[in-house]
């Protein structure tokens, strides 16, 4: 026995494999901390549920006596394992007594399970995989249905998930969120099929512009899927005969009509960072070069939405932390990198 058992997952949605590991955690300790990942991500086909909705699925699948023994620790992704590990450790430390004997429950499924080795000092409580249960297959069957056929579409998989999950999926299919996510799922599916016959999976290169002025940053709302209606920094795909610098300036102009002389942009450039986490984009392996510009106290440049932008806005930096759930993919974390929005203390 350990004092506290830790179980880390995304639970998108909760299935019986998750519940088997959670039960092992409950059998191993009086207190169980479930670290729910992707906690403040905007809804997407990969992350359709808020962390509160996932917590409810977990609690409703447990017997009443076990619910009080489970504490949920929501955790953002960070897209940086060292920072994420530090955040998890700090979160667990706030919920446990100093010197507590901590166990980490899990199984090595694939490359995504490497985090289990990132917590030296925590005892690894290994659990064999509980059959071929996979949340991706559940989501694909769910999004491949309609609000009227979702129950029959999920019937072949019903024995792989708790009743609370099946009820949540059925009820959620009646909401506007479901239809919007379904459209994104279909778009992404077609996007991946378009390059499925390539000899190697393609790696896409994009650029982004983080433009700061008078302690505001320039944001757009995306006009198209994926991420339709979500906040992002201006950017897009590099073209064949461009450098990343040229692409960055072109995308900024195309999406926002922010026409500034190249010399002004050169003078304002503070740094360039590469964001290359394998899971940062659902469109496929996408590496972006983010350029951070600071115009200081200059007048706000005139801007106007165009191209892939539904809306363009100057947003105060001190408001960004409260807008995390509105951002597309890792764009909040891009801003965090340059502006220190979630610095750990």
UniProtKB/TrEMBL annotation:
InterPro entries: Cyt_trans-like, NUDIX_hydrolase-like_dom_sf, NUDIX_hydrolase_dom, Rossmann-like_a/b/a_fold
Transmembrane intervals: none
Keywords: Nucleotidyltransferase, Transferase
Gene Ontology molecular function terms on file: nucleotidyltransferase activity
Domain annotation Nudix hydrolase: ranges: 202-338
SUPFAM superfamilies linked: Nucleotidylyl transferase, Nudix
PROSITE patterns, per the entry: NUDIX
Cited CDD domains: NUDIX_NadM_like
A Pfam family the protein falls into: NUDIX
NCBIfam families assigned: cyt_tran_rel
PANTHER family on file: BIFUNCTIONAL NMN ADENYLYLTRANSFERASE_NUDIX HYDROLASE, PHOSPHOPANTETHEINE ADENYLYLTRANSFERASE
Name listed for the protein in its UniProt record: Bifunctional nicotinamide-nucleotide adenylyltransferase/Nudix hydroxylase
């Amino acid at each position: 026995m350990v004092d506290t058992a830790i179980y880390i997952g995304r639970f998108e949605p909760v299935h019986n494999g998750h519940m088997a590991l959670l039960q092992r955690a409950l059998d191993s300790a009086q207190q169980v901390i479930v670290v729910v990942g992707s906690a403040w991500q905007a809804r997407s086909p990969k992350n359709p549920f808020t962390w509160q909705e996932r917590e409810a699925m977990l609690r409703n699948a447990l017997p009443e006596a076990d619910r009080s023994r489970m504490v949920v620790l929501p955790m953002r992704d960070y897209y940086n394992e060292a920072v994420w590990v530090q955040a998890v450790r700090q979160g667990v430390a706030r919920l446990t007594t100093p010197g507590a004997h901590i166990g980490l429950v899990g199984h090595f499924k694939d490359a995504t399970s490497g985090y289990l080795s990132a917590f030296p000092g925590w005892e690894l409580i290994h659990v064999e995989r509980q059959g071929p249960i996979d949340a991706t297959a559940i989501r694909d069957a769910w999004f491949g249905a309609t609000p009227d056929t979702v129950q029959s579409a999920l019937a072949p998989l019903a024995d792989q998930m708790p009743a609370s999950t099946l009820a949540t999926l059925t009820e959620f299919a009646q909401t506007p969120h479901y239809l919007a996510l379904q459209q994104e799922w279909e778009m992404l599916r077609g996007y991946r099929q378009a390059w499925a016959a390539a000899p190697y999976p393609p790696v896409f290169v994009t650029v982004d512009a983080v433009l700061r002025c008078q302690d505001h940053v320039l944001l757009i709302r995306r006009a198209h899927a994926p991420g339709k209606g979500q906040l992002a920094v201006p950017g897009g795909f590099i073209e064949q005969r461009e450098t990343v610098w040229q692409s960055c300036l072109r995308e900024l102009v195309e999406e926002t009509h922010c026409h500034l002389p190249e010399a002004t942009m050169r003078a304002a450039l503070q740094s360039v960072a590469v964001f290359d986490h394998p899971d940062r984009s659902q469109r496929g392996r996408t590496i972006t070069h983010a350029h951070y510009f600071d115009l200081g106290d200059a007048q706000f440049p005139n801007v106007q939405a165009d191209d892939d932008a539904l809306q363009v806005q100057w947003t105060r930096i001190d408001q960004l932390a409260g807008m995390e759930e509105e951002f597309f993919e890792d764009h909040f974390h891009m801003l965090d990198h340059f502006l220190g929005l979630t610095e750990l203390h």
